[in-house]
Amino acid sequence: MRRSTVTILILLLSAGLAPARGSASAAPRRYQSASPPRYGFTMERTRIPMRNGITLAATLYMPTGAPQGAHFPAILNYLPYRKDDDSAQEQYGIFSYFARRGFVGAAVDIQGFGDSGGAPPDREYSAVERHDGEQVIAWLARQPWSNGKVGMFGISWGAFNSIQMAMRNPPALKAIIAVDGTNRLYKDDIHYIDGIFHVDEYELYMDLSQGISGAPDFSLATSVIGPRMNSKPWTLAYLEHQRDGAFWHRPERPLSTIHVPCFLIGGLHDGYRDSIPRMLEQVPAPVKAWIGPWNHSWPDDSDYGPLYGWRGQAVRWFDYWLKGRNTGVLADPKLMIYLQHWYPPGAQDQDIPGVWRAYAKWPPRGRWQERLYLQPDHALDAKAAASGRDRLPYVPSTGKNSGIFWWGDLLPDQRPVDAHSLVYDTKPLSHAVAIIGFPHLMLRAAASAPLADWFARLEDVAPDGRVTLITGAGLNGAQRNSMLYPKYLVPGKFYTFSFNLHLASYVFPKGHRIRLALSNAMWPMAWPTPYRMHTTVQLGGPQASWIDLPRVRRKGRAPPPALLTRPRPVARLADIKGSDYLWPASYKVLPDKDGRSRVLWHGSSYTRFPWGLMHRRESLTYEVDNANPADAEDIGRALYAQTVAGHTLTWRSRLSVRSDLHDFFYQYTRTLLRDGKVVISRTWKKTVPRDHQ
Length: 693
Hints:
The protein is of the alpha+beta class. Among the domains are: 368-552, Jelly Rolls (Sandwich), CATH 2.60.120.260; 577-609 and 611-689. 15% of the residues lie in helices and 36% in strands. The protein has twelve helices and 35 strands. A ten-stranded mixed beta sheet has the order 1-2-4-3-5-6-9-10-12-14, sandwiched between helices. It is globular, with a radius of gyration of 26 Å.
């Protein structure tokens, strides 16, 4: 049942949780501190029964030392990422913190992964996962130690399904924390970035993980390993759905249906950051957001800083909604966002200079749009030119030097990419220019072929010539009006391509230049369109091309310093030792051969568990023929080797996706070996027609 805003306010007032309002003479509210670490904890492995007869594996982090009869709220992290090995160290560091502060932590493997029963679902965020998730929440709420209230949290997948559970409003779910997630799957997730087909390490990892049995036993029983090894690889399912539609929308519901309070954390160098402004605007439940200078990581564990402790703020949030402690979270700024200052290009770890800004709503108050027109002399200017056109030959390997796998992470100097792009620069700035929001591009252009993609990059050009990428976005030209109903282009006809670039927060310094770079490829992030061609951009006249910058004042309100604390050491399991999974990895541009451009990505890791040594290795080789862009190919290999009970179990896979003018050719093999001898092997092979990709 939906609750009206009035009903929610009455409930908050009756509980003493609504923020104080009234005359200026009203006494200021005194808030309670967050729960202190007053408990010990134990880890208990258990199984949660589902209605279909299977059970899900759970590890409960139970507070100890509480008075008899004490009841605690539960906090759920619900993942396929194998709570007992792959994510065990991370789960322990987080849940031990929460348990000491009076929360029961629940790490749960989704069906078909880790030690949970059943077969892997047919996709990410499946109906099975959602239905099971609602049962898990209800089970946690009715345990004898429970106070009946459940929170949910997670990063990446855990953020996605936290948002999806909030869309369903199960009665016991009272609050979520979503870090680096999105509500919109087709455009925002990594399978079709901006509507364009994409393959990276994640597909290798998940497709092989479908076949691996649970730690620490790694059962080879036919009833366990058979359904896993024979489960259809998800990458094939995604290739079969190349346009937006029902397949992608099944896990989604409108943001207006969310009546569960949401604490959203995102990174300006993470590919999922765009969802936070949408949720600030559209979710009717209480929402607060924190957007920092981080990549796809927790705020205390990013490759880029400055880093901040987030777990204390999480306790304040869950204290408020799950324990009834008025910690003042509703008096916090609705949005805290880091306004980045210039940083040098490069993928190296660094602290990005900048300042924090606090806002009461989205969009920020006082923001305005500054329009800059593309000029025939490759300038950006406030006035449109009388006329002009620029022509761009299509080079399908454009982007190979960018180091880009999605619109996130710090990237190398963009000059090698700009060399194959159309670029438009302002004059050196006479004063600093600050932006927060989504730059918007209006491009009037034509292509000599029936399909062309457009990529726009907003960049900072330093006085010494170095080029730092600030943000960017792509548009599948066939999806110019609809991602559900794409239409080919008429060669030579001019169209209007209108799209937002991804969220940016940045100050262009005085003396620097603002650059807009345009290309028809961003490879290997985006699968290349198949036709040899050139494109033409209309620069002047009544249908000129332009970009709007979301300008803000450089000075503004800072958030309370107490909300930004240094990260504290994270507790670790002493009996798990080894490297972080596949990171740092290697991205290498190989020499062109026979006109074909090639990029190699590879990474590996070793981790020692109490039951034995685990080794992971993955690689992806991308190739494209610059003279025949329809001829493109990705070859991926993955390996997971685990020693256990005196034996070595090896799971390995090979993925091949290639294309011609009309089709994708998919082949995937998943193999399990015991001491070098094949136990089971399965191959999928399919030709899938290109659908406006």
